[in-house]
Automatic annotation (TrEMBL), chain A:
Organism, scientific name: Sporosarcina luteola
Name of this chain's protein: Oxidoreductase
Organism domain of life: Bacteria
Pfam families attached to this UniProt entry: Gluconate_2-dh3
NCBIfam families attached to this UniProt entry: TAT_signal_seq
Signal peptide annotation: none
Matches recorded under InterPro entries: Gluconate_2DH_su3 (IPR027056), TAT_signal (IPR006311), TAT_signal_bac_arc (IPR019546)
UniProtKB/TrEMBL annotation, chain B:
Name the UniProt record assigns to this protein: GMC family oxidoreductase
Superkingdom, taxonomy of origin: Bacteria
UniProt entry tagged with the keyword Oxidoreductase: yes
Keywords noted in UniProt: FAD, Flavoprotein, Oxidoreductase
Region (Disordered): 161-180
UniProt organism field: Sporosarcina luteola
Domain (Glucose-methanol-choline oxidoreductase C-terminal) ranges: 428-552
Length: 250, 570
């Protein structure tokens, strides 16, 4: 996809971060840069670097739920393994998915506000769905701690210092329900984590994921468009520059 | 101490399609009608931010707040019923318009066969086609008797369609508006179905093909094919909904008002009549008694049944003895489906909720079941509802569910995948029913409704047969990979399936096997009417709204008559 389709916000970012525009082709590199800093060091190398693209006047991201960067970085690496950067474009980190999840956990999603959370609680059958007394916020806090614990147990290293294959092995252990968690199964936590990753990648950027709508561009989804009545009968596939609901004006 | 309000002629419990239709018709006839709606007011103006998949389709903004009330569920009587803590399998409505705000707008008429299913099945296949565990019964009304009311509902809603389905019941009039656009995606299905000898037709749609003024003077806009319809409200007022049709029609008579945040907790009964309802103001916690000459339960299937149960009106169904009718014949839908992966990219993100083509060659008794181990069938449709990226991540079976290969394949296939689905009929079984939960309560201290449901042999057999037929169509459409849905085993309340729950307050001609008569008048209380898909003795192979709309119009007429004459209407 040509650079001129990326829109103004991308070019503004390039200017403010001092990266030569000519050095960037497509969306992959930005995701790569962002991912690189976290991957290698596990922590921010320089204040503001990791999320420089977020720090323009119209969009500021920060942590509302996690209380330390170590936990947030475990989450970041885990979701990046689920939805990695590749030649198509950014992965979960580049898209801001960790911020999306953090922010959601701080609100009604994390607190299961609109769900039935009265007891008594029983494990139930799979066909009966979510039966944990834990809120999602509590589940994530425990799940992230468990990921770190598994890394230490298996490799005597922090999760963020593992190589990709080792991280995958731990995530797979969650998926196969091989990790002991309290009040919820690790398999269930994995499913919620995977779903949250996709939600953060593909939700409207107003939720602080899907940075610059790059996930929509990768996928060919034009986001919020007022109407397709004049093109829906066309045989040809339509490539349409995506729009956020934040542009909505009737 | 509950405060008693002034009496009205008619009170409706809930103001969605059913409450709106009853209110509009009764208010036009001069009756004073009050709607009690537990949710809030809303209108087209509240749907400006609707193109937001996360907020509306994933976090269910328009739907029921389960922290206040849900149901409990078990697959069978041996299992412990547990609360449905999150929405999943079906999406319950709340607020003005109810589920009629976030429906897709598929507006079918049940087949003539549906209304006389027991008689017609026995005539053709004998009495033992299904085991006696299936509680099949006729509805007590024929398609022809209901036809004028189908016509009326379709005119209110302005339904867009084409009268070319050879298996449909006879129509007195053509559709009010022409069919929607035949898109390239729809044509793929049409060509394939036709070449296999089937009879595709444009799905009858409540997303209108052109602007329309209904007989009540309400206008409905023209659909813009924006792709945000199911789970959303329409910012154009182009998806027919209660809040843009029947509710304003009722309002403009001056005989109708709605009390919002009014959660009804009991129907008050004295002798063979009801006297009104008791409700809680959800904002203050205060209790009120609303007396009425006629009480009409117009909430969803679950709540209509629950209110009768907690109010001890009618006899609870008992699966051991077969006695009792309340809660009996709960039905759902059987959903065979096939996904096809194509080489070419398609405009799958464009669409409308009811943009589709359908065949009925395998619905009802359109095909011979002599050598088959099930009855009935499904409408089979390809719909182009607008695929959105969080919910649409199609991958071939050999691709893992996460990681690099997942990302690549789900992105590659997002615009290269089509699905065909059947809406299969659901036959009532003696073990599938609703009752009151003994343990769990809602926010107002009222027991939750308990659902005991599982798929049965008939369902599994039908699913298998239809999946094969659908796969043949997909193959004919030119998909390079055809992936049939897995065979069904146990019903799972987690993944979304369909919000077409039926039964529990079923209609009929005999109080021994039905809760209400064919005017939806309660057998045990002549001034109590119960309206909705809960009246269906079985579920058909279509979306229910067209059929419940017709039943509601017939009942609205019956309530007007009852208001003059009193007594049983049958």
């Amino acid at each position: 996809m040509a650079d001129d389709q990326k829109g103004l916000s991308r070019r503004d970012f390039l200017k403010t971060t001092g990266i030569a525009t000519g050095a960037l082709v497509g969306g992959g590199l930005i995701g790569g840069l962002v991912g690189y800093n976290v991957n290698k060091d596990g922590v921010q190398t320089k204040s503001g670097t990791k999320n420089a693209e977020d720090h323009d006047v119209t969009s500021v991201k920060g942590l509302m739920f996690f209380t330390n960067h170590a936990d947030f970085n475990v989450l970041s690496q885990a979701v990046e393994r689920i939805f990695p950067e590749d030649d198509l474009g950014p992965g979960a980190i580049g898209l801001g998915v960790p911020y999306f999840i953090d922010n959601q956990l701080a609100g009604s999603y994390g607190n299961n506000t609109r769900e039935y959370m009265q007891g008594p609680f029983f494990a139930g059958e799979a066909t009966q769905g979510y039966q944990s007394r834990l809120t999602r916020a509590e589940m994530f806090r425990q799940g992230i701690a468990k990921m770190e614990e598994e890394a230490q147990k298996r490799y005597q290293k922090p999760f963020v210092d593992l190589d990709g294959g080792q991280m995958d092995e731990i995530i797979t252990a969650f998926q196969k329900n091989e990790v002991e968690m309290k009040g919820v199964s690790s398999e269930f936590f994995f499913r919620v984590l995977r779903q949250a990753t996709l939600e953060g990648a593909y939700a409207d950027p107003i939720y602080n994921g899907n940075n610059n709508m790059d996930a929509w561009r990768m996928k060919g989804f034009p986001g919020h468009q007022m109407a397709y009545i004049n093109m829906i009968e066309d045989e040809k596939f339509q490539k349409i520059e995506p729009k956020s609901i934040s542009t909505m004006q009737h | 101490m509950a405060k008693t309000l002034d009496k009205v002629n008619v009170v409706t419990v809930g103001v969605g399609w059913m409450g709106g239709i009853i209110a509009a018709e009764c208010a036009k006839a001069g009756l004073k009608v009050r709607g009690l709606e537990r949710g809030k007011a809303r209108s087209t103006a509240d749907y400006q931010m609707i193109h937001d998949e996360y907020r509306y389709a994933i976090r269910y903004e328009l739907m029921q707040d389960l922290s206040k009330e849900t149901i409990t569920f078990r697959n069978n009587r041996k299992m412990r019923a547990l609360p449905m803590r999150q929405l999943g399998s079906f999406l319950l409505g709340e607020n003005l318009g109810g589920a009629g705000t976030h429906w897709n707008g598929h507006t079918f008429r049940f087949l003539p066969y549906d209304f006389q299913i027991k008689t017609m099945t026995e005539q053709k296949y004998g009495k033992n086609k299904l085991s006696p565990d299936y509680l099949l019964q006729d509805w007590g009304i024929t398609y022809d008797e209901l036809e004028p009311y189908f016509d009326k509902f379709e005119k209110t809603a302005g339904i867009s369609g084409e009268n070319t389905n050879p298996f449909a019941g006879k129509r007195s009039n053509d559709f009010p508006t022409p069919p929607m656009k035949r898109t390239p995606i729809l044509k793929k299905f049409e060509n394939a179905a036709s070449s296999l000898g089937y009879h595709p037709y444009m799905l009858p749609s409540a997303n209108l093909s052109e602007a329309y003024e209904n007989p009540d003077g309400q206008t409905i806009g023209a659909c813009q094919y924006c792709g945000f319809c199911e789970r959303f409200g329409c910012e154009y007022g182009a998806k027919t909904s209660p809040e843009i049709t029947v509710v304003p029609t009722a309002m403009k008579t001056g005989n109708f008002d709605v009390t919002f945040h009014a959660n009804v907790v009991e129907v008050l009964k004295s002798g063979n009549k009801v006297t009104g309802v008791r409700y809680v103001d959800t904002q203050t916690g205060e209790e009120f008694i609303q007396p009425a000459d006629v009480v009409v339960l117009t909430s969803y299937v679950m709540n209509n049944a629950k209110l009768l149960m907690v109010s001890k009106i009618g006899e609870q169904y008992n699966p051991d003895t077969g006695r009792g009718t309340l809660g009996k014949n709960y039905g759902y839908q059987i959903l065979p489906g096939v996904t096809g992966f194509f080489d070419e990219q398609m405009n799958v993100f464009m669409g409308a909720g009811a943009l589709g083509m359908t065949i009925d060659d395998f619905n009802g008794d359109s095909f011979d079941h002599s050598d088959l181990d099930f009855i009935h069938g499904a409408s089979i449709s390809l719909t182009q509802t607008g695929n959105r990226p969080i919910q649409t991540n199609p991958i071939p079976p050999d691709v893992p569910a996460w990681g690099a290969d997942f990302k690549k394949a789900s992105i590659e296939n997002y615009t290269r995948t089509l699905s065909i689905g059947g809406q299969g009929a659901s036959m009532p079984h003696k073990e599938n029913f609703m009752s009151l939960d003994p343990d769990y309560r809602d926010a107002y201290g009222v027991p939750l409704l308990q659902l005991t449901y599982n798929f049965t042999e008939q369902d599994r057999n039908m699913h298998k047969y239809l999946t094969d037929r659908i796969a043949e169509i997909m193959k004919e459409m030119g998909a390079k990979t055809v992936v049939p849905g897995n065979p069904i085993s146990d019903y799972d309340i987690v993944p979304y399936q369909t919000t077409h729950n039926t039964g529990g307050t079923i209609m009929g001609t005999d109080p021994a096997n039905s809760v209400v008569n064919t005017y939806l008048q309660h057998w045990d209380a002549e001034n109590l009417f119960v309206v909705g898909a809960g009246n269906f003795p079985h579920n058909g192979g279509y979306n229910p709204t067209g059929t419940i709309g017709a039943l509601a119009y017939r009942t609205a007429e019956a309530i007007q008559k009852y208001s003059k004459t009193g007594g049983s209407l049958v």
